[in-house]
Amino acid sequence: MGHRHLFSVIFFLFSFSLAKGQPGMSTASEAWVKNMEQNALPVRSGNASFQVAPQGFALYFSQANNIQEPYLVRVPKGYDPSRAMPVVVFLHGAILAKDSFQYKDPAIAAEPVFSAADTLNAIVVFPFARQDFKWVNQPAVFENIINIVQQVEATYNVDKKKIFIGGISMGGIATFWFINNKPDIFAGFYTFSAVLRTSDDIKFSNLTASKPLYSINAKDDPVFSYKEMEQTFQQHTNEAPGWHFSTVETGGHRFIYGKGGTHYVQSVIRELLHPLRLKL
């Protein structure tokens, strides 16, 4: 990555952080956290039946070394504890990886991925990273995502054959780690605005018709090169028959947060849940 491009990336992330600065706990934040804590289910013992779960957001924590990593579970209105339900894990981008975990911000509820809960009847799991604990070259952080999935499986009635993971930007790049190292845990993968820096970043043979990867990149992305990702896809199509690459003409690096963004997110998740030809 050249110095000029690196500067552009840093400036983009810094500018957005200023625009999205978060103050201390407000009344709204306190109410948001309290509601999520009330929605969290107690630990299920042994082979006890799964419990009825309130629709909405629940807050949990997973222990990783000396760090309690928070994660949200968005329970859809159609959740039935007697029936196994698919799970969609979303890994956010570096913008949310600040000095502290950003789970206290009620604005998180507007993340496009949560729209898949009620619309597609899936449990959505949203882990949080921070500056010293993010999914970049930290095996313990990646492994803790697996711990989170296992905790969700122990708490909610999960269809273990329909667990999917993906994310945007840093979270999308992190998805490649799971494709390489934990492919058997997940039924499929998805990325938004992610890039493969080298061909060694991913085991293309792990992407099959039954274990696909859906990637969407915007042509006008100022952070990661669309052309590089497109070229990588073209070069490795035969090695990765399960890789589906789609294009957004405009919208930039964070296109899923702009006009039509929710549609793109739901289209990808719908295709993973109910494989058909992806229509954007």
List the helices and strands and how they pair.
Layout: H1 3-19, H2 27-39, E1 56-64, E2 67-75, E3 85-91, H3 115-120, E4 123-127, H4 139-155, E5 158-168, H5 170-181, E6 188-192, E7 213-218, H6 226-235, E8 243-248, H7 261-273
Parallel strand pairs: 3-4, 3-5, 5-6, 6-7, 7-8
Antiparallel strand pairs: 1-2, 2-4
Describe the structure.
With 280 residues, the protein is α/β, with parallel strands linked by helices. The protein has a single domain (57-273), classed as Rossmann fold, CATH 3.40.50. It has helices at residues 3-19, 27-39, 115-120, 139-155, 170-181, 226-235, 261-273; strands spanning 56-64, 67-75, 85-91, 123-127, 158-168, 188-192, 213-218, 243-248. An eight-stranded mixed beta sheet has the order 1-2-4-3-5-6-7-8, with helices on both faces. The protein is globular, with a radius of gyration of 18 Å. The model is unreliable at 1-23 (pLDDT under 50).
From the 3D structure, determine the CATH topology: Rossmann fold
Instruction: Tell me the series of helices and strands, N- to C-terminal.
Output: HHEEEHEHEHEEHEH
Number of individual domains? 1
Spatial order of strands in the largest sheet: 1-2-4-3-5-6-7-8
Shape call = globular
CATH class term: Alpha Beta
Mean pLDDT: 89
Give the name of the CATH superfamily. Alpha/Beta hydrolase fold, catalytic domain
| CATH-scheme architecture | 3-Layer(aba) Sandwich
Enumerate the spans where pLDDT stays under 50 for 5 or more consecutive residues. Answer: 1-23
| Structural classification | alpha/beta
How much helical structure, as a percent, in the residues? 25-40%
**Gyration radius over CA:** 18 Å
Number of strands: 8
Distance between the termini: 31 Å
Largest sheet report: 8 strands, mixed
Tally the helices: what do you get? 7
Strand content: 15-25%
